Description:
Number of strands: 14
Bound molecules: 4'-deoxy-4'-aminopyridoxal-5'-phosphate
Structural class: alpha/beta
Largest sheet: 7 strands, mixed
Distance between the termini: 26 Å
Helix content: 40-55%
Strand content: 5-15%
Strand order of the largest sheet: 2-10-9-8-5-3-4
Mean pLDDT: 97
Radius of gyration: 21 Å
Shape: globular
Number of helices: 14
Amino acid sequence: MSARALLMIPGPIEISDAVAGAVAERPRAHTAPDFVAAFGHALDGMAAVWRAPAGAVPFAVPGSGTIAMETAASNLVDDGDAVVVASTGYFGDRMAEMLRRRGARVTLVNAPTVGDVPDVDAVRAAVASTGAKVLFATHVDTSTGVRVDPAPLAAIAREHGALSVFDGVCATAGEVFDMTALGADVYLTASQKAIGLPPGMALWVASARALATRAALRSPPPMSIDWQPWQPVMEAYRAGKPSYFSTPATTLGWALAVGLDEILAADADPAKAMAARWEAHARTARAFRAAWQVLGLKLLPVTEAVTANTLSALWLPEGVDAPRLLPEVRSRGVIIAGGLHPAVRERTFRVGHMGVVTGRPDALRLTVRAVAEGLAACGVSADVDGAIAAFDGAYAR
Ligand code: PMP
């Protein structure tokens, strides 16, 4: 990490030195033998990180999280299909709008209040009564800091013969998600969050059931986001052979192999490596929550059970606004984010805590200090040392 301000927004995030080194290399051809080997290895790494079931296919294509969402919407849904979106914020609402544009009949199931999750029985009833083909949910909605429990949602989909799709853009590799154990059909993300790369890649794993659904689609998706031409490319690289449909993001593909290797290096058993990865995020989140409590900051998520480990979405104290607080925090060496959800945008701010920083208590402590001192500079009484002590105590446990 360089001397520039620490990037603690909920994506893009700080990346490791090894990933930064990989990104800094000169571009490789998509056919270069070393790239072929690395990209195939990266796709294998995705299958391990996602805990993907047999028959599922990992995809890594140029793009963003929005493109990953779009590809799921347009490969699984035809004009007139019924779908259910369990929304926990801005990105769930975006998913619903995408599906409407695709011509789906969308039933949106909202949370009773911003900061909460939709009632599971209401989701079940919506899936059952509409005969939904697909159930969509956002694992962690970055606008609210709310995490859904994917298990009951994936189970509802299975019980009703529907597919389940989870937007993991602010969750994948930071929150517990075992695609095989859940029986989930698509788990999608982008490179710039807990995966630990710069922006630029859309990543997802699709189950055999999801791939069969694409094969049976009446109206094919736009070619650039169609799974069908991409699938043989991914399979070829995993078999050690170059292939072409559209130029892969070779630099990011090269770096993806490095980044996923770092995640999986925690243990020879990928399941244990992922458990360690998820726990590092849980521990970091607990420590931040301890500090926020000392500072009198309240989380937007209504209970701890629905609070994400990858970011903190916090109410601004009375009399403080983000345009004032953020520059104060920035002048202390840390970049945090303002609010995003339209209903609470002016009244909230967000601190991301995912990826490599979860193992860097110095960086995390600097963040607590910058927020605490920033609040004090805005006229809020803030126990800076108390917050850091609470952070340290919880992080050490
Ligand atoms: N879903 C979630 C949960 C996100 O946090 C984001 C990005 N903040 C997106 C989707 C969209 O990703 P992108 O900005 O890369 O298009």
